[in-house]
Design brief:
The structure is a single chain. The protein is mainly alpha-helical. The longest helix has 42 residues. 79% of the residues lie in helices and 0% in strands. It is a multi-pass membrane protein.
Length: 429
């Protein structure tokens, strides 16, 4: 593992030349990216250098960020739509689905996504250093580690009812939430395969296919959820089983793309026994990424568990669930920008362009913050009606309206936090 990472530190050109940017700069040693050349050109006036650099970075960033945001938003919306279907079954079902999703499933999501982020960093630097053969090895190595990590998570899902009761939830609510969680068990191992594949593709700047796959799967998911919940009467277990199935559809489609696409022929050369070497080193690296993201998701889980202990747990959970669902959906925009920034920075570092890496962080942070402010304003404008998308209860709508100002503050803070936290993993890789 150490030898793999040492090889990635060679400053080799990775980016495709941009003719406009190259004409804007008269200096460079031939190994710098167009952005690095502009940032290093002291003969250009400061304002012009900043304008050119910003234009180059925005073009590179949005080509990655737009489909990445779509992927994360659509994937989150699948979970959100499942809770919407549950909510229209009744307040108890909405509370149970929210408790099962945020109290149990969110832990698995945060852990798997956090561990998968190590693939994003390693593959991004390998791609920037033109060590293309290592990307497939990292993908397989991550899949093995995440699949093994899923085994103890399986035990937590199976014991979700007594665990929730231990935390003080009512037996009736815990039982319903456990039913929902049981249907999400296959989703654990879909995460274990999906996140490494997703990061593998993103590191190569291949993001549009994942967006198309996720968008198509969302349509299938909504149709199957409607059939399972309303036509077949499968209730909570039907809704969660369909969600698990939808994630496996995404996994299968992405794997077929990797096998068949000519864009992956240099980075995927088939299964290799080399993937079984360095598992412990990869586990330590991925665990560090996972802890950071898990700490961010655990406070959501704590809020949900506390809400279930209040005098009227159904109302507390339902109103908090609406706010968290909105926050989680819009949070995916920032996560998408984080993914784009991770690819940009790791590619530039792999190619030996430190100024470009630092400038990328600055630009993506400002852009993500601006978008978050707009989101907060929109949410405040619809504070009195936004809950009716989830449930018909007027009492819940009033409670959500009172919580919306705090939600707006959360959206703004979440607009920059994922982007800033994402950069901490780069130097350690």
């Amino acid at each position: 593992m150490v030898n793999d990472q040492d090889q990635l530190r060679q400053p080799i050109l990775d980016s495709e030349p941009d003719s406009t940017a190259l004409e804007a700069s008269n200096q460079g040693d031939g190994l710098e990216s167009p952005l690095e050349k502009v940032l290093s050109d002291t003969q250009l006036p400061s304002f012009k250098r900043l304008r050119l650099a910003t234009w180059i970075e925005l073009n590179l960033l949005f080509r990655l960020a737009a489909p990445a945001v779509l992927v994360y938003v659509v994937n989150n919306f699948m979970s959100l739509s499942t809770r919407v279907f549950a909510g229209h079954l009744g307040n108890l079902e909405l509370a149970a689905a929210s408790l099962g999703n945020s109290g149990v499933q969110l832990f698995a999501y945060g852990l798997m996504l956090g561990m998968g982020s190590a693939v994003e960093t390693l593959c991004g630097q390998a791609y920037g250093a033109e060590k293309y053969d290592m990307l497939g090895i990292y993908l397989q190595r991550a899949t093995i580690v995440l699949t093994l990590t899923g085994l103890p998570l399986l035990l937590i899902f199976l014991l979700s009812k007594p665990i929730l009761i231990l935390f003080g939830e009512t037996p009736k609510l815990a039982a319903e939430a456990a039913v929902f969680v049981y249907g999400l068990i296959p989703q654990i191992f879909a995460y274990a395969i999906n996140f490494p594949m997703q990061k593998f593709l993103q590191a190569q700047r291949i993001v549009a296919p994942s967006a198309y796959i996720s968008a198509a799967t969302l349509g299938v998911h909504i149709l199957l959820s409607w059939v399972a919940v309303y036509k077949l009467g499968m209730g909570l277990i039907g809704a969660s089983l369909v969600l698990s199935l939808s994630w496996w559809i995404i996994v299968g489609a992405q794997f077929i793309y990797i096998l068949k696409s000519s864009r992956c022929k240099e980075t995927w050369s088939g299964f290799s026994l080399q993937a079984f070497s360095g598992l412990w080193d990869f586990l330590k690296l991925s665990a560090a990424s996972a802890v950071m993201l898990c700490l961010e998701t655990w406070y959501f889980q704590v809020l949900v568990l506390i809400a279930g202990l209040l005098e009227n747990p159904e109302l507390a959970l339902n109103s908090l669930a609406v706010c968290m669902a909105i926050s989680g959906l819009l949070f995916m925009v920032s996560v998408g920008f984080n993914a784009a920034a991770s690819v940009r920075v790791s590619n530039e570092l792999g190619a030996g362009n430190p100024k470009s890496a630092a400038f990328s962080i600055l630009v993506v942070t400002i852009v993500s913050l601006m978008i978050a402010v707009v989101e907060a304003v929109v949410v405040l404008s619809f504070r009195d009606v936004i809950s009716y998308a989830f449930t018909d209860g007027e009492t819940v709508a009033n409670a959500v309206s009172h919580l919306t100002p705090y939600l707006a503050i959360t959206l703004i803070l979440n607009g920059i936090q994922p982007v800033l936290s994402g950069k901490h993993s780069y130097p350690s890789s």
